[in-house]
Amino acid sequence: MSHPETRRDATVEQLHGREIADPYRWLEDPDSAETGAWVAAQNAASRAHLDALASREWFQATMSAIVAMPRAGTPARIGERYLVSRNDGTQQQDQWYVADSLEELRSGGRLLLDPNTFSQDGTASLAWYDESRDGSLLAYQVSEGGSDWTTIRVRDVATGQDLDDVLTKVKFSAATWLPDGSFLYVHFPTEGEGRGTEAAALPAGRLRRHVLGTPQAQDPVVWELPEEPRVIPEPELSHDGRWLVLHFSEGTSEKNRLWAYPVRTEHGTSTLGEPLKVVDETRAAFRFVRSQDDRLLLHTDLDAPLGRVVRVDLSGPAPSGRVDDLELVDVVGESDAALDAITAAADELLTVHLVDAQPRITRHGLDGSELGRVDVTGGSVVALRGKAGRDEVLLGLTSVTSRVTPYRLLLPSGEVAVVDGLAPEAPGGAPAWEPPEVSVERRRATSKDGTEVPYFLVRRADVELDEPRPTLLYGYGGFNIAVLADFRPTFAGWLSAGGVLAIANLRGGSEYGADWHDAGRLHRKQNVFDDFAAVGDHLVADAVTTPAQLALHGGSNGGLLVGATMLQRPDLAAVALPAVGVLDMLRFHLFTIGAAWISDYGSPEDPEMFETLLAYSPLHNVRAGQAYPATLVLTGDHDDRVVPAHSFKFTAELQRAQGGDAPVLARIETSTGHGLGKPASVIAAETADLLAFAAEHTGLVPS
Fold first, then answer.
1. Phi and psi (nearest 5°) for 354?
2. Coiled coil where (predicted)?
3. Is the pLDDT of residue 232 over 90?
4. What's the rounded mean pLDDT across residues 176-187?
5. 3-state SS, residue 67
6. Strand 575-579 relative to strand 630-636: parallel, antiparallel, unpaired?
7. Which of 364, 517, 620, 674 is catalytic?
8. At residue 77, does pLDDT exceed 80?
9. Active-site pick, 64, 125, 147, 556
10. What sign for the dihedral angle of Cα 539, 540, 544, 547?
11. CATH code for 40-65+432-698?
């Protein structure tokens, strides 16, 4: 098919002795009239194609029904109250209700926050919230148009009214409340004029302290490293209010420094003492779990790639900051599976290990003794809400066709039960979409270097594998993030249509510990693409599907995965669906938060890493005249994490080079970002387009 023409200019730069052409660099300017016209032309072309697809109407109806399912999230304990998100299916954004007990919450509770009132079109959303130590106040963050930039406001939980405090220029931050009722947050000196459309590199952030009722301009800086803009602090206060633990690392690296500030609260004022530099080098990951007087419990992968919990005593001489000088005592030792998450509650620890990418939840005493397993059902733990000193843990689990099943674990009895009755009734009676029964298998492919690559194979229970079927292969493979069999509207819609779903556990993720992550980053990033292709080949070899029936999908780092794999193996699949992808590997570090990803990708400014990046960078490996799969590139104009220029430039280059008849289209959503807070109607329409495109070019007829 014909595609919109894209102007090419003569931009060329010298990088490490090579001439690198960048003819679409003008598309990096999100505010130019020419970029705006290009976006409009691309959307017009893709809209015409997508609207004509045979299954588009079916998928729109199905996805609208899926996002309209009445639902509730996992409740949270805030002080002596409970808070939960819910949606009766008619709201663009979930609403938040509060009550004095779970029983009262089942009966409805009181509306505390309604993000649907944040904007007229539903594009403003609740990005995060943090309750004060007594639960009387809620610092909540509002994102506009899916931007990572947020505004912090403070709501009185009892009255439902906001205080006068409004904090701007906030990004990648929690509100960490101190015992005196002030809180810490990460502030940046500028947020740009575009509130999400700007592409400039992010400057260094500062940890500031806000006292309620005072102007933000008076907030003192508690911590900053202006010479290290890639470092963003993450503070956490111990349950007894005695220690402020500060984690900070370079970008997204798991290897971090950890400081502990003693906190003294007298006469209603909290004072931070000089920090103890517990870990002042980046050799391993150290995450705070809880304190025991002058001892800290930490989750670390030091000498334990699958993870362990250790104790460090701060009552003696000040630590040197050197890892080798730490006297660490094992509390929960390294096991046979990756330690994925941990929380403290009462006088216990609750651990989540991934056993072949499936959760195993265990109770431990503070001495590490095993107290028993927690018997719950679900493919992924999406919420683990406990607090030291509290006698309950609230858990949320999902599966590929079930959003969230909330559980309540009581301690020390270990009694666990589903928290039912939180979701509202569907208006007009029964919900329009019923989750199908599914079959979930574990299978294994062999990658290019002989490494075994596991994956989930999921299908509707009545869909037999007696012949090859249209199949959606999903992957991510990076940043120490595990990909599990959890709920995503895309998965639910594809399975409902009768398609087969494969979810790959690629190197670069955290499914099998730190070594698995390390095997898929920096100079070893090619392993991830080889793993993905190996799973695709295995699906074909096992007659689950054929290349003509296979679609590749992934978002963000997964968009890079799809882009690189489709170029290296254009024969592998019929469809490529890269969403909000990192596709220009020579310039990713120059935009917004992109420099933070150097920990996984390496720096293009390093001559050796430059060669590695150039070898797989999707934008730079498109071959003119090659027949590529049918491709739908998805992005949002307010994506200020992976700026849309990645997708714009890749689309233009692929359209120019396409040597086959398959379409190359771009779907560019307006007033949405990297995925945060999308309105329900936008999710339904976007997913319907994606799945209808995949179905059209893999031969899936919804049934």
1. -100, 110
2. none
3. no
4. 97
5. helix
6. parallel
7. 674
8. yes
9. 556
10. positive
11. 3.40.50.1820
Q: How is the chain split among helix, strand and coil, in percent rounded to 5?
A: 20, 35, 45
> The tokens 């909330």 sit on which residue?
406
- Residue that the structure tokens 């362990």 belong to: 308
Position 91, amino acid: Q
299 among known catalytic residues: no
Contact 19, 9 (CB under 8 A): no
Question: CA-CA distance, 696 to 700, in Å (whole number)?
Answer: 7
- Compute the half-sphere exposure of residue 487: CA atoms within 13 Å on the CB side of its CA: 18
d(CA 565, CA 559): 10
Contact 499, 590 (CB under 8 A): no
Residue 220: predicted pLDDT: 97
270 counts as catalytic:
no
Burial 445-465 (b: 16+ CB within 10 A, else e): bebeeeeebbbbbbbbeebee
Residue extents of the structural domains in the chain = 40-65+432-698
Displacement of CA 366 from its chain's centroid (Å): 30
More confident residue, 624 or 189: 624
User: One-letter amino acid identity for 505?
Assistant: N
N-terminal to C-terminal alpha carbon distance within the chain: 28
CA distances from 110 to 98, 133, 166, 263, 321 (A): 5, 21, 24, 35, 48
At which residue do the structure tokens 């674990």 appear? 409
Tokens of 80: 């002596």
Q: Which of these, 144, 6, 28, lies nearest to 642 by C-alpha position?
A: 28
Residue 484: CA count within 13 A, CB half-sphere: 24
Query: What is the overall mean pLDDT for the chain?
Result: 94
